[in-house]
């Protein structure tokens, strides 16, 4: 029996630019493997729900290419299960795309240790990032802490090129052990909101959908630079979910978008701005690799003693999307119904929690982690720290978004608020009503939203706390 080429899927559900998959195919008949392990189940429910869709789309495409064989799904911990699998099949290497989240890093080390006695190894491959962090260092050899010089250095170095796509016909490993049937998996069984609502508002998933979305976005990208902050318009790419589960690689996005700039130079400003956003994603990952506790510990040490409020009634209102501030509630309801939220609104919502409500950014981070279908451990942590003022290159704490002014500026006709907020004005939109279908029975939220906020009080309390903390008040 020829040993298989083992490909351990994590967050790289794609056939294009997947060096780990390519290496496994080169090695022997393919055995694609996915673990239902503790690390996966510790991730947020919406993110697991989205990952299941990615897994199913990948599995269907793999069956097409192998004429019938899908992903082997094993329930349990990789470091416990892989040694037996290698003994059984005779394989000596496991290929994985490096997803450098801290929990995965720990598991990679455990797997390496477990494979050593068999003279076998876990081989990590690139593809999750534009380039390896070792390639983007400051003059002193450190990690960049400020975005603009980071972006300059990355552009000067140039992102890695995508590798060729996997072949249309792939020979599968003939005798795979049995695993969990794909139709039996239900990764988000514990989701505390309407699974069916999320499904109704889902964007198409899978690699083909990701590539189509990118092409479609680039066809209409001319207004991106001016309109990307407008939640009432559909002006951004919507690629974050696809990137979060690896249905498209950032290197592919970069290569295709750069090609468009060459073909249609008139779109170059807009596409350059879009690529700069992709560099924010990269910056977040390089920072997380350099500082793995970024989701738990303030990046700036001095913020460890900031007097954040812990769980409190304001936080409960915020997490139910019922604060009485229109743009904040609209954004949080959009997230409940769709798993998505516009970037400008994420900033306003996060600012409102950490400043007007003076509540610990880690509570907001955890709520987003559980609710976002595009959850990304690096982007989520960096952005929460950025808004709270304790992160690298952060917005200073005293810069407090006024949600009403933000709404006037970025939702000038109120279309976004009307879409998501029943009772705000006129007849409620279907999306606004869908929010009520997501509520657990114990929550009482009025169907007739009313404004009730004291923005001035929140702002003054935040600034007082900040000045006392700095010792200048
Ligand atoms: C508090 C907070 C939490 C966030 N949590 C996440 C998260 O968990 N997952 C996530 O993918 N993004 C997160 N973001 C960043 C951003 O809001 C989303 O990436 C963006 O809304 C996705 O929409 P898009 O794909 O249409 O973006 P586009 O404007 O089309 O941008 C293209 C791509 O660039 C990247 N990008 C854009 N903005 C940022 C940013 N500020 N930081 C890092 N990468 C960025 C994304 O990969 C995005 O898909 C967060 C932002 C804030 C303020």
TrEMBL record:
Keyword Lyase in record: yes
Binding positions for FAD per the UniProt entry: 224, 236-240, 274, 374-376
InterPro entries for this protein: Crypto/Photolyase_FAD-like_sf, Crypto/Photolyase_N_sf, Cryptochr/Photolyase_FAD-bd, Cryptochrome/DNA_photolyase_1, DNA_photolyase_N, Rossmann-like_a/b/a_fold
Residues with site note (Electron transfer via tryptophanyl radical): 308, 361, 384
Signal sequence annotation: none
Superkingdom assignment: Bacteria
Gene Ontology BP, a term: response to light stimulus
One example GO MF annotation: DNA binding
Cofactor(s) for this UniProt protein: (6R)-5,10-methylene-5,6,7,8-tetrahydrofolate; FAD
Keyword Phosphoprotein assigned: no
Pfam families reported in the protein's UniProt record: DNA_photolyase, FAD_binding_7
Record keywords: Chromophore, FAD, Flavoprotein, Lyase
Family: Belongs to the DNA photolyase family.
This protein's name: Deoxyribodipyrimidine photo-lyase
Species in which this protein is naturally found: Paracoccus aestuariivivens
């Amino acid at each position: 029996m020829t040993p298989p080429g083992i490909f351990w899927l994590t967050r790289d559900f794609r056939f294009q630019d997947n060096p780990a998959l390519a290496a496994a195919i080169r090695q022997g008949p393919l055995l694609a493997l996915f673990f239902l392990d503790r690390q996966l189940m510790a991730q947020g429910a919406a993110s697991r729900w989205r990952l299941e869709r990615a897994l199913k789309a990948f599995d269907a495409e793999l069956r097409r290419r192998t004429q019938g064989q899908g992903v082997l799904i094993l329930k349990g911990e990789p470091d416990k299960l892989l040694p037996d699998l290698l003994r059984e099949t005779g394989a000596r290497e496991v290929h994985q795309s490096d997803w450098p989240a801290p929990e995965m890093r720990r598991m990679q080390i455990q797997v390496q240790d477990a494979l050593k006695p068999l003279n076998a190894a876990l081989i990590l491959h690139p593809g999750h990032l534009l380039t390896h962090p070792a390639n983007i260092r400051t003059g002193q050899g450190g990690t960049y802490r400020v975005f603009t010089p980071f972006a300059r250095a990355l552009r000067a170095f140039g992102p890695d090129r995508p590798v060729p796509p996997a072949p249309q016909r792939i020979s599968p490993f003939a005798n795979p052990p049995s695993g969990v049937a794909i139709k039996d998996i239900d990764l988000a069984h514990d989701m505390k909101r309407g699974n069916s609502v999320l499904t109704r508002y889902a964007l198409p998933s899978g690699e083909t959908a990701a590539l189509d979305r990118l092409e479609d976005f680039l066809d209409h990208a001319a207004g991106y630079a001016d309109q990307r902050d407008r939640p009432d318009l559909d002006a951004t790419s919507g690629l974050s979910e696809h990137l979060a589960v690896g249905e498209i690689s950032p290197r592919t996005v970069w290569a295709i978008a750069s090609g468009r700039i060459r073909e249609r130079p008139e779109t170059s400003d807009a596409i350059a701005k879009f690529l700069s956003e992709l560099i924010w994603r990269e910056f977040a990952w390089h920072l997380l690799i350099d500082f793995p506790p970024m989701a738990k510990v303030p990046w700036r040490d001095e913020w460890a003693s900031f007097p954040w409020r812990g769980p409190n009634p304001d936080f409960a209102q915020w997490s139910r999307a019922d604060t009485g501030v229109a743009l904040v509630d609209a954004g949080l309801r959009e997230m409940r119904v769709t798993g998505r939220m516009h970037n400008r609104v994420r900033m306003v919502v996060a600012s409102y929690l950490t400043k007007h409500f003076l509540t610990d950014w880690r509570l907001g981070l955890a709520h987003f982690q559980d609710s976002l279908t595009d959850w990304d451990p690096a982007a989520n942590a960096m952005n929460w720290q950025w808004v709270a003022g304790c992160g690298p290159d952060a917005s200073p704490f005293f810069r407090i978004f006024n949600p009403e002014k933000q709404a006037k500026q970025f939702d000038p006709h109120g279309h976004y608020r009307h879409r998501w907020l029943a009772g705000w004005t006129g007849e409620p939109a279907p999306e606004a009503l869908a929010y009520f279908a997501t509520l657990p029975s114990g929550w009482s939220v009025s169907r007739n939203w009313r404004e009730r906020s004291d923005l001035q009080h929140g702002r003054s309390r935040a600034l007082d706390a900040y000045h006392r903390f700095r010792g200048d008040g």
